[in-house]
Amino acid sequence: MNVFRSDQFPFILMVILAVSCIVVFWSIMDMVLLGASLAIVLIPLHRRLVARTRPVVSAALITLIALALCGVLAYGTYSIFTSNAGALTTMFTTIGNWIGNPATNPLAYGIPLSKANLTGMLAQADAIFVNFTDTVIEYLNIIIFKLFTFFFTLFILLLHGDELRGRIMEHLPPSMTEYVTRLSDVTVDTLYAIYVVQIAIAVLTFFIALPVFYLLGYGNILFYSFFAAFCELIPVLGSSATFIVIGAYAFALGDMRGVLILFFLGYFVVALLPEIWIRPVLVGRRVKIHPVIMFIGIIGGILTMGLAGFVLGPVIIVLFINTYRMYIRDRKDGTLPKVFFRDNS
């Protein structure tokens, strides 16, 4: 008769409790997952520093450097958007007047979007990119708590990550140890690829957007290119948000040439091409998975889980495929372990 081994119940209970915590604290789980994923990527650096200093000093130093970099980037972004607030205000005002005019309302062109929906999206864009100071003040408590959760998770897992991994491995059945080790290695590779590729594509977006906005002829070429790169850096937005907003502005002005430039060169070349080809290829190449599958994992994760899905989607896809590969290989070799069950007959 097949039964669970008694020494596996603590591990199974731990998994159940971990899943329960994820469900209960889902509202902040995006920060926990991002902090944990960044800690996994930075642990090799932490190990090098530990050879020269105390673990707590190393973890604190890396966390403070990450905090400082985020602060510098946030201040730089704030300064750029503040200095170009006039251009954004003009853009959103023009779009708002276009929506409010019955003769130019999108419904008159057969676009299946209600005036209320368009006005709501415009108000959200205005709150994020123009009146961002008021938005930050309004949600300051939530922002501070989420930032604390992110950096606390980063610090704790840098400090105790190796110890936690060792304790988990000690309580795993011997037959599972090799599987978990191999899956851990591929998870690290996946997370490393996700972060590196995300930054690389944001930088690439800035440079390939420059000629598009030059051809557009609206001025503010550097700012609009930065705007696209900034949106690309945020997984739930993407640079397509920039071209949709500026495309709506061009449409409101009656500039059909600008609309065509933004649609074909901006949306398809700058926004869509990196997402459907460059990102899946670069991430998939590192973890040896087909780009189409990686594309499904990345986009599907974002659509279903938001910011957390940006990390979880590709990781789950990679773990599933590699588990299947290990199962098939071990089955062919006749070395498939009996992980959870044993025969007591």
Summarize the structure.
This protein has about 350 residues and is an all-alpha fold.
User: Alpha-carbon distance between the termini?
Assistant: 5 Å
What structural class is derived from the secondary structure elements? mainly alpha
Question: What would you call the shape?
Answer: globular
Portion in beta strands: under 5%
Q: Helix share of residues?
A: over 70%
Low-pLDDT stretches: 339-345
Radius of gyration: 24 Å
How many β-strand stretches?
2
Taken in chain order, the helices and strands follow as EHHHHHHHHHHHHHE
Largest sheet entry: 2 strands, antiparallel
Strand order of the largest sheet: 1-2
Taking all residues together, what is the mean pLDDT? Answer: 83
Helix segment count?
13
3D structure, described in words:
- It is a single chain.
- The chain is mainly α.
- It has a domain at 177-335.
- 82% of the residues lie in helices and 2% in strands.
- It contains 13 helices and two strands, in the order βαααααααααααααβ.
- The chain has helices at 9-24, 26-50, 55-83, 85-100, 115-129, 132-138, 140-171, 174-216, 221-233, 240-253, 256-287, 291-305, 307-333, and strands spanning 2-4, 341-343.
- A two-stranded antiparallel sheet has the order 1-2.
- Helix 2 (26-50) crosses helix 7 (140-171).
- The longest helix is centred in the middle third of the chain and has 43 residues, at 174-216.
- The N and C termini lie close together (5 Å).
